[in-house]
Structures are given as C-alpha cells and as structure tokens.
C-alpha cells in the first residue's frame, strides 16, 4: 500500500477518486515555427476553431454562474474570440509563427496594453492571460487549466490552489484537497478550512497519481493512502458519524475547569456572519472589510459600506464584533490604493501603511463603521492591520476617537509589535494576533511557497515565543492600571484544536477562527484544564522545532485521535 | 461612410458588462463598425466588435464617441448601436 505524507491542515477522513488539477500551460518556445506541411491559412483556421471552443466553454459556464462571477465569465468568453487578440495572432501566423506561439505573443501584448492602462483594466490583464492559456491548451489537445469539471464528486489533487480557484471550487463536487506544494497557511489550507473539506498539503509525489485512482485522505494525520483497505473504509465511515457529533458548539467556549475563552468567528460579510452566528460563534473576532473593496476600481461609497457592515453587526446583537480596517496590499491588491509594481509587496505599503500613502480612504471607512455601529446592537471594536510601532497605534487610536469609535485596537502581525506590546497597549484597548502574517514575518518565509512549508508553521517555537511576549507585555501594561487588556488570536492557528489549547495556555483571552472549526476547537478545549493548557504551552515553547512542538503537545492530548482531529 | 455620435449612458462607462453587450451586438452584424472618442481622428478608430478595444478606449459615463461604418444597412445598424450606447447597460 502506497502512502504519501504531507501536512494535515483540515481534519476529516474520506475515500474518493483522484482528479488532477491540470498543470499550468507551459509557454510555447520563443521562435516556434509553423510545421512545413501547414499553411498559414490552415493554422489560422485551427486558431479560430480553438478560440471559438474556448468561447463556447466559458459562455456555457457563465450561464450556470451567478452574480459577479457570471459577469466575469461572460466578458472572459468574449475575449476568447476578440478580433484584437485573434488578428494580432493571425498576423504572426502569416509570418510562419506557430499558432500556439502566435496567440501567446498576441495575448502578452494585449495584456501589457491593459496593464499600462492601470486600475480596473490592469486587473483584466489576468483574464486575457487565462484565455490565452486556454486557447493554447485547446490547440495542444490537453485539459484546460483550472479546477476540472466532473459530474461525480472527486478528490482534487494539484500543486497548490490560487485565490481565484475559490470562486470556481464547487464544494458539492470536491470531497477533499491534496496538494504537493503549499504550506499550513497557503490558500489551499485556508479554502479547505472555510469549506470544511479534509485537506493535506506539501505531500510530495501526489502529482503522479492517475485520474480515477482511489485514495484515502486523513486530513488530521496528513496522509494520502492509495488503494484503501478495510481499515481505511472503517475509519472513513467512523468519521462521518463523528463529524455529525462534532458539528455542535453550544456557544460557551472554555476549559474543563471553567476558565472562559470566548470562541469567535472570522467573517468576510453578512452571509458569513449569519452562518457563524448559527454555528454558535460568541461574536466576530475578525471582520475582513476587504469584501467591500476587492474587485473594484473605485472606493465604495460610505453608504454602501454602512449597509455592508450593518449586515454583519445585525447578526450579533449584544455581542462583540471586531472590525479590521482595510488590509490591502501584498496578496490583496487594490488598484486605487496599492502599487502593484513594488518589488516586495509583503514588506511594502500595505495594511495601515496605505493611510499615509493614500490618505482619506481609512477616514471614510472609520466614518462608515461608526455610522453602522450607531443604532446597531453589536459591541463594535475596530483594529488596524500591519501595525509596527506604538506611534502608529497611537495615531490609529486618535483617528478612531475622531470618528467616534470607542474601542480601538491593533493587529499584532509584525514581530516588532509583539516585542513592543506593552508600549502599544498604552495607546489602544486590545490587540489581536494575526498568526499567519506573524509567522511569515518571524520566520522570513513567504506564506505561499511550498518549499518553505516547514518554516511557515505557526507551531514554530519562535512564533509561540512572540505570542507569549505579547501576553507578557499586556500583563505588564495591566499591572500599572489594574486591568489587563485583551489579547486575542484571529489567525489560522486558532483553528487547530491542539494549537488552540497551547494559545490558551500562553494566556490568550479569545480565539477567532473560521466558523467551521468552532466545534472541533471547543471539543478539545473543553476537555483540558487551564493548568494542563499551561503545561502544554510550556512543552511547545521548549521544543526545538515546530514538528517536535506539535508532536509533544499531541502526545498529551490522546483525545485528538479518538476525535479524528 | 456613415458616422454617428453617441453619449455613453452606462454609469460605469464603456467597460465590463456594458462593453460586452455592445461588442456582442456589433459582432452579430455583417458590416464592420469602428469606434473612437469624439476628439480622436478617424485613423485612430478601433474595431467596435472587440471587447478588449472597447475597454482600452476608456470611454466614461457622459463621454461622446463616434461610430463609423459603410455598406448596406450601415445607417440602420448605427442607429440601433447609438440607442444601445445611450442606454444604461449596467442597470439591466
């Protein structure tokens, strides 16, 4: 029996057949010529036929789609047969360039033209490149890039998923995600947790599995087993029963000995918030306001923002809702706010820093939040992302006060903020640890890079030390005033039940996660005492590596295996 | 050569969905139609059946564009296309 080992990022045990995500379309060689036996006219006919096939495929999909996705597919379908794109390619074919190379170059020059126009047009450049890749795949007779279409459910296997794949991933068709690349905080991991799909990432070699191969995926152990036997079948059946019992969270997070740890949800809009409230979330620990802004070429109006935020607040009357102000930049570019040409966007003008480069957007957002909060029954807190200094925290607090927002806080994602927590908390009322970025910056390891998955792991003892120091800073600040200000976690780390126990042991006061993980985290947390959690935190801090930390903690939490987590 | 002017009525200008609707309408005709901003010369006019060309034109709400076509039925075709541009295509 062949077993592939990777990193389990979303629990679940399931058996299904493999569908490989087609490899990205490779660039046709520069200078590739038409075959001697082919005339330019024949090649042009083949190209037009291929472009019409891509048009028909995308058009068909747009008819099944809805909302914004439908509009994007409709215009992308038109691009496939666009005269500008095709005429440019035919001109090259007439000079005896191969059809594949011709459409590749024509697509590149059209994309460059759109890119140079900036703003909304620049974003459409990616659509042109997608269409170009589809036409080349059609000409070559290979599967189109992107998530495959299938009438029956399957286990999706690929290198890594991109944020754009989320839009086309149908959870009723995809049973589990397995990738050869990516890390615990890659997009694949985030998508899997949000959809509640079992997932294993960084499983080297899985790209070689043939379509239709039957495999058993264990999203907690991080294994993919080819040709599952009776033991795996039994485990998968047991998981179905377990998942049903795990699916309940009563809305009271805490340890076995009654130490309260509110379990909150990370949400990105009103629909999310309603689902989170139904899942028992005790509030919102992270409202990602980007949902209002992404995919737009201009800033949404204050009225539009007020309506969007109010939708979230209304789902949590009498409960806390922490709003994170716009976190644009790096993997979330916005044409009217961020500079796409920065050489190192993760270290660039992103998050709160965009307020200095493009003042006004934040001020208007704070005004919208204040208006939405006014007259809502939710307890609205506001925090700024990517804060590096106490000075920035103080400036943000003043901006909140000017807008009439009374509970300002900041995210701790930059290691400097963790080290300076005491000073920072003199300026604001709370901090929230964003463990995804904190890990990326502490370990100097890009979140999206598969080869760095081992570094990019929130179990890294260095990351846990930064979390501990943040709590120590908060306690030192509280010592002077007699009241310790809250330190929450709203990164992916909080969704891992074993790590959640460690975070509570380190002194974190609230945990915020994707609503799907609430019940699993509660199931484990409610079975340990605060003293046990502290002891486990000590073990993790003392470990020499992330793997050792995780293994040491899990060895003391035998219930994890029983729960399939 | 027939020539007609039209004021862009779509709130978001002539891109995204409005550009798609217009390009499809032009593409269904048997004659060639060009489009240019009012201040541009006829030589700079672009193929109006190309969504990519329409998007690069960057015509905003309220801008005036010039449509040109020749051949049988050109006059009637332009009449219909002007009406289309002068509708808020994003609102439908």
Automatic annotation (TrEMBL), chain A:
The entry's keywords: Cytoplasm, Kinase, Magnesium, Metal-binding, Phosphotransferase system, Pyruvate, Sugar transport, Transferase, Transport
GO cellular component: cytoplasm
Localization per record: Cytoplasm
Its EC number(s): 2.7.3.9
GO biological process: phosphoenolpyruvate-dependent sugar phosphotransferase system
A GO term, aspect molecular function: metal ion binding
Domain Phosphotransferase system enzyme I N-terminal: 6-124
InterPro entries per UniProt: PEP-util_enz_mobile_dom, PEP-utilizing_PTS_enzyme, PEP_util_C, PEP_util_CS, Phosphohistidine_dom_sf, PTS_EI, PTS_EI-like, PTS_EIN
Principal location: cytoplasm
Residue ranges of domain PEP-utilising enzyme mobile in the record: 154-222
Active site, per annotation: 187, 490
Residues reported in the UniProt entry to bind phosphoenolpyruvate: 288, 324, 436-437, 447
Keyword Magnesium: yes
Alphabetized Pfam families for the sequence: PEP-utilisers_N, PEP-utilizers, PEP-utilizers_C
Entry keyword annotation includes DNA-binding: no
Reactions listed under catalytic activity: L-histidyl-[protein] + phosphoenolpyruvate = N(pros)-phospho-L-histidyl-[protein] + pyruvate
Co-factor requirement: Mg(2+)
Entry-linked Gene3D superfamilies: Phosphoenolpyruvate-binding domains (3.20.20.60), Phosphohistidine domain (3.50.30.10), PtsI, HPr-binding domain (1.10.274.10)
PEP-utilising enzyme C-terminal domain residues: 255-528
UniProt binding sites for Mg(2+): 413, 437
Leading EC class: transferase
Job of this protein: General (non sugar-specific) component of the phosphoenolpyruvate-dependent sugar phosphotransferase system (sugar PTS). This major carbohydrate active-transport system catalyzes the phosphorylation of incoming sugar substrates concomitantly with their translocation across the cell membrane. Enzyme I transfers the phosphoryl group from phosphoenolpyruvate (PEP) to the phosphoryl carrier protein (HPr).
Annotated family: Belongs to the PEP-utilizing enzyme family.
Protein name (record): Phosphoenolpyruvate-protein phosphotransferase
Lineage of producing organism: Bacteria, Bacillati, Actinomycetota, Actinomycetes, Micrococcales
Automatic annotation (TrEMBL), chain B:
Primary localization: cytoplasm
Domain HPr: 1-92
Matches recorded under Pfam families: PTS-HPr
PROSITE patterns noted in UniProt: PTS_HPR_DOM
A GO term from the CC aspect: cytoplasm
A GO BP annotation: phosphoenolpyruvate-dependent sugar phosphotransferase system
Superkingdom field: Bacteria
Gene3D superfamilies: HPr-like (3.30.1340.10)
InterPro entries hit by this protein: HPr, HPr-like, HPr-like_sf
Subcellular location: Cytoplasm
Keywords: Cytoplasm, Phosphotransferase system
Name listed for the protein in its UniProt record: HPr family phosphocarrier protein
Source organism of the structure: Cryobacterium tagatosivorans
């Amino acid at each position: 029996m062949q077993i592939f080992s990777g990193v389990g990022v979303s629990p679940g045990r399931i058996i299904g057949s493999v569908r490989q995500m087609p490899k990205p379309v490779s660039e046709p060689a520069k200078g590739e010529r038409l075959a001697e036996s082919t005339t330019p006219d024949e090649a042009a006919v083949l190209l037009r036929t291929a472009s019409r096939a891509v048009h028909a495929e995308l058009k068909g999909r747009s008819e099944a789609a809805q909302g914004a996705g439908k509009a994007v597919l409709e215009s992308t379908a038109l691009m496939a047969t666009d005269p500008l794109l095709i005429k440019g390619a035919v001109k090259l074919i007439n000079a005896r360039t191969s059809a594949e190379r011709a459409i590749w170059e024509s697509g590149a020059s059209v994309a460059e033209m759109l890119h140079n126009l900036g703003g909304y047009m620049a974003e459409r450049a990616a659509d042109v490149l997608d269409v170009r890749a589809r036409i080349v795949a059609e000409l070559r007779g290979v599967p189109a890039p992107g998530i495959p279409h299938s009438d029956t459910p399957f286990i999706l296997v690929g290198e890594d998923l991109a944020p754009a794949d989320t839009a086309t991933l149908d959870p009723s068709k995809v049973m589990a995600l397995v990738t050869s690349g990516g890390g615990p905080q890659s997009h694949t991991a985030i998508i899997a947790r949000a959809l509640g799909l079992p997932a294993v990432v960084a499983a080297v070699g899985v790209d070689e599995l043939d379509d239709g191969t039957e495999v058993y995926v264990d999203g907690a152990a991080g294994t993919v087993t080819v040709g599952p036997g009776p033991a795996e079948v039994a485990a998968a059946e047991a998981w179905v029963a377990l998942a049903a019992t795990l699916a309940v969270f009563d809305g009271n997070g805490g340890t076995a000995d009654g130490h309260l740890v509110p379990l909150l949800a990370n949400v990105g809009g009103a629909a999310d918030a309603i689902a989170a409230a139904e899942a028992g979330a005790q509030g919102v620990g992270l409202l990602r306001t980007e949902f209002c802004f992404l995919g737009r070429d201009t800033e949404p109006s204050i009225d539009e923002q007020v309506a969007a935020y109010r939708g979230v607040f209304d789902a949590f009357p009498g409960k806390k809702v922490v709003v994170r102000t716009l976190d644009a930049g790096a993997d979330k570019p916005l044409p009217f706010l961020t500079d796409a040409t920065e050489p190192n966007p993760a270290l660039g003008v992103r998050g709160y820093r965009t307020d200095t480069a493009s003042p006004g957007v934040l001020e208007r957002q704070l005004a919208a939040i204040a208006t939405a909060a006014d007259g809502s029954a939710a307890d609205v807190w506001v925090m700024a992302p990517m804060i590096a200094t106490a000075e920035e925290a103080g400036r943000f607090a003043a901006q909140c006060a000017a807008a009439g927002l009374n509970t300002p806080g900041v995210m701790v994602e930059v290691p400097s903020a963790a080290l300076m927590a005491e000073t920072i908390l003199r300026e604001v009322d709370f901090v929230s640890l964003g463990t995804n970025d904190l890990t990326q910056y502490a370990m100097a390891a890009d979140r999206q890079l598969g080869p760095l998955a081992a570094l990019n792991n929130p179990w890294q003892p260095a990351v846990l030390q930064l979390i501990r120091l943040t709590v120590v800073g908060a306690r030192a600040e509280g010592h002077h005033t007699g009241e310790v200000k809250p330190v929450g976690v709203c990164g992916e780390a909080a969704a891992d039940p074993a790590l959640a126990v460690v975070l509570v042991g380190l002194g974190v006061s609230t945990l915020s996660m994707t609503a799907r993980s609430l019940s699993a985290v509660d199931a484990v947390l409610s079975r340990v005492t605060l003293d046990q959690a502290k002891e486990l935190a000590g073990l993790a801090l003392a470990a020499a590596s992330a793997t050792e930390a995780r293994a040491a903690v899990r060895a003391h939490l035998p219930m994890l295996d029983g729960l399939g987590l | 050569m027939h020539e007609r002017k039209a004021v862009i009525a779509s709130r978001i200008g002539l891109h995204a969905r409005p550009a798609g609707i217009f390009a499809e309408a032009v593409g269904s005709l048997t004659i060639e139609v060009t489009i240019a901003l009012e201040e541009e010369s006829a030589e700079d006019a672009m193929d109006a059946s190309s969504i990519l060309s329409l998007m690069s034109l960057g015509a905003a709400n309220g801008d005036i564009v010039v449509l040109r076509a020749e051949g049988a039925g050109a006059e009637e075709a332009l009449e219909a296309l002007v009406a289309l541009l002068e509708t808020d295509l994003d609102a439908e």
